[in-house]
Write a structure and sequence with these properties.
By secondary structure, the protein is α/β, with parallel strands linked by helices. It is built from 15 helices and twelve strands. It has helices spanning 4-11, 14-25, 30-37, 41-53, 72-75, 77-85, 92-118, 120-127, 133-144, 161-166, 180-190, 195-198, 233-242, 262-265, 276-285; strands at residues 28-29, 57-62, 65-70, 151-155, 172-177, 201-205, 218-224, 244-255, 288-297, 302-310, 322-325, 328-331.
């Protein structure tokens, strides 16, 4: 039950109201809020605690950082509408906050640019071995948009490209990565999304061997060039399938089986791609029916897109017949 008195008391303070307006625009760390508000960390932390206790904020620990995002009270319902309609154009303190919020966005973008520049040679050498990313993304979009995305889980989000491509079409998108550095890169992309879209995105620190989400929580789960880092990919696939609702989909983009040993020694790939047979067996063993396969060929590496649909408890495990239609292998 909503405690209206606690909510009104929490919002009665000007600094806490500024925090609410800020996190409605962008998920922020405590340090970033300290920078924007130009107040001491203990003081900002006290305000955060009061907002948290009133149920207005959600905290998420990521390594040594704590990030804050609006709770459902601030994004849905009458309170969200009231805040959205509030005219703060004449509030000088809030206008300063917005300028500093832009500085935070720019700092994230600069950090991302420095990271990409430092790794450009490494990534360019890998990209030269396969078809252009734009063609892979176009095919992935074609496969995904064959049905509504619903609740989406992006496993191994990395730099947040899947978030950038599909958050607008998802009802909610959870992006998980085991690297705090990568999650900071993903936030640089999220910072450039509209608040309406950014508020649908939840960034989490987590491992694909033990995903920090509930059983059957998602309609669409995506692995985009991630599975080849898994030491035990069968177990990772099983863990992903655990999180999919009946009728939901798992989409894996990765390399077909290959023998380029340098990807193991230079790029830390644990597996040198995957065969169709491996993927079909891994899906089938855990109640997933293979419904799409496609190969994108150009260069030494073939990029594959596999999609499986989760069976309900009543459905029998299917036998598969492969046909070819518009360059997309459809499994029926």
């Amino acid at each position: 039950m909503i405690n209206l008195l606690n909510i009104m008391r929490a919002l009665a303070d000007p600094t806490r109201l500024r925090i609410v307006f800020l996190v409605r625009r962008l998920e922020l760390s405590v340090g970033e809020l300290v920078q924007i508000l130009d107040q001491s960390q203990p003081r900002v932390s006290r305000h955060i605690r009061i907002l948290d206790e009133a149920g207005l904020l959600e905290r998420r620990k990521e390594g040594s950082w704590v990030f804050l995002r609006p709770s459902g009270l601030l994004t849905d319902g009458s309170l969200a509408s009231l805040l959205a309609e509030a005219d703060v154009s004449q509030a000088r303190a809030f206008q300063r906050d917005l300028l500093r919020l832009d500085e935070v966005r720019n700092a994230r973008t600069d950090m991302a640019a420095q990271y990409f520049a430092a790794h450009a040679d490494e990534w360019d050498s890998l990209r030269s071995l396969h078809i252009a990313d734009s063609e892979v993304e176009a095919r992935l979009a074609q496969v995904l948009h064959s049905a509504p995305l619903g609740q989406v889980l992006d496993v191994g989000t990395g730099t947040g490209r899947i978030v950038e491509l599909f958050a607008a079409d998802a009802s909610r998108l959870v992006a998980i990565d085991s690297s705090p550095e990568m999650l900071r890169l993903a936030r640089a992309k999220i910072a450039n999304l509209s608040p309406e879209i950014a508020n649908k995105v939840d960034i989490k620190l987590g491992d694909f061997n033990m995903l920090p989400v509930a059983d059957g929580e998602f309609d669409t789960v995506i692995f985009h060039q991630v599975l080849h880092y898994a030491q035990h990919p069968e177990a990772v696939i099983a863990e992903a399938i655990r999180t999919i609702a009946p009728g939901g989909r798992l989409v894996i983009v990765d390399f077909a089986a290959h023998d380029l040993e340098e990807l193991r020694t230079v790029h830390a790939h644990a597996r040198l791609g995957f065969s169709d047979d491996f993927m079909k067996k891994a899906f089938h063993s855990h109640g997933l029916q293979m419904v799409h396969q496609t190969a994108l060929e150009a260069g030494a590496l073939v990029v594959k897109v596999w999609m499986g649909e989760k069976l309900s408890a009543q459905q029998p495990h299917p036998t598969h017949n492969l046909t070819l239609k518009n360059n997309l292998r459809i499994v029926s």
